[in-house]
Amino acid sequence: MLILAFDTATDVATSALVRDGEVLGERASRAVRILDDFEGLLREAAVEAGDVGGIVVGRGPGSYTGLRMGLVTARTLSFSLSAPVAGVSTLDALAAGAPGASPVIDGRRGEVFALVGGEPACVSAESLGVEAGRTYVGDGAVRHRARLEEAGGLVPPDDDPFHVPWARHHAARARDFGAAEDAEPIYLRLPDAERALRA
Questions:
Q1: Cβ neighbours of residue 187 closer than 8 Å, sequence gap 6 or more
Q2: Where residue 37 sits, what CATH number does that domain have?
């Protein structure tokens, strides 16, 4: 099956075209331009949009705005291509790209999104348990490098590809394709605007 996979939960948006486990093309950028990237990937692979049999979208956690953009794009493409959708955790994709490492996504405001007891959680960077000798990857690991390394953690160089949630890993971890609305985002806290209203 030809799969279009993408993730917009972090500052680096990624997309990939994958057929039966083979990566036909992959892109990453600081700007969310999934539709432009999709068209470019189709051209490079010499396939048609109608050949896409499934869409995989990153469910986060991450930027609220980025997640919404990704999910809306997945729903739009699902409708226009008549293709089912599967959602994959951005943390799981990061972990798949760096086997044995712990994924850490920057949550801003001194917080990070990480796997705690195997489940996605939002915790303060200060309270994140660090295991000496363990590798930490993701933009949260880069932002909080000093603290992680001070506690004995290992963080690859800032520009290491391990810090990017590559869409090829989303495609590899996708299960249970279905209705686009079933790919629910992983929100671990309220958006800033809603917090401000409640305050």
A1: 60, 61, 64, 67
A2: 3.30.420.40
